[in-house]
Amino acid sequence: MSWTFDNLDLIREYTLNHARLAIIPILVSFLLSIPLGWMANRTPLLRSVVITGGSLLYTIPSLPLFVILPLIIPTGVLDDTNLVVALTIYGVAIMSRSAADALASVDQTTVDAATAVGYSSVTRFLKVELPLAGPVLLAGIRVVSVSTIALVSVGVIIGSKNLGYFFQNGKQRGILEEVVVGIMLSVLLALIFDLVIVMVGRILMPWTEESSARGERATRVRVSPIDAGVTSADD
After folding, report:
1. Which residues, other chains included, contact 69 with Cβ-Cβ below 8 Å and sequence gap of 6+?
2. DSSP line for 133-160
3. Which of 8, 66, 79, 180 has the fewest C-beta atoms lying within 10 Å of its C-beta?
4. Phi/psi at 77 (nearest 5 deg)?
5. More confident: 233 or 154
6. Phi and psi for 42 in degrees, rounded to 5?
7. Rounded to whole angstroms, how far apart are CA atoms 76 and 53?
């Protein structure tokens, strides 16, 4: 543990920077995926374009993407902005499909009922479709969160100061403890992000907890007569 105690300041700095580099792509990819998911459900052609486009974006290797982006946006290869934009692209590639599936899962009868009572298309989307799609969106953003935290480490190849540095430096210097610390902190960071997302989801969508509780109660009610019958038969 000597390496860990000798480098606590460096570990804290790189962990916080890793978290900072991950937060922005996660949030931006979520916001961008909502309109893309909405578009994907307008026509089969748009859905094919969005889904296929996202799949193709995710297949782009990270290193070539780091080199190509400065030719498109005003940033340098070694800038953190370059890494953030690349991670956002990967996040959108994953989240756009989740958003499309989430909005497609909303019961059309409910959408028609909202239209019948006078909701405009925008109001219906914000007050009916988006909340009902929330659980699936939450599952999608959790996947994006884990993926993004893992991909931040790749940024070390362009000089980004994050937990990936411990993998690279520890391997080069033969310090196993440094590599283990980097891995453990990456996993811990992913767990913390996931926990925060779940907690935010419960705050914003309290009805999902109520539905789950009602489902559990209904299951117990259905099972209890059977259990009673088995018990009496055994007696």
Report:
1. 75, 82, 85, 86
2. HHHHHHHHHHHHHHHHHHHHGGGGGGT-
3. 8
4. -60, -35
5. 154
6. -75, -50
7. 26
CA dist., res. 129 & res. 141, Å (int): 17
* Side-chain-side CA neighbours of residue 109 (13 Å): 0
Residue type, 46: L
Cα–chain-centroid distance for residue 189?
13
Q: How many CA atoms lie within 13 A of 45 on its CB side?
A: 0
Distance of CA 214 to the CA centre of its chain: 27
- Using the 8-state DSSP alphabet, how is residue 74 labeled? S
Residues in the chain, total: 235
pLDDT digits (tens, 9 = 90+) for 62-117: 888 888 888 888 877 788 888 999 999 999 999 999 999 999 988 889 888 988 88
DSSP per-residue codes, 100-112: HHHHHTS-HHHHH
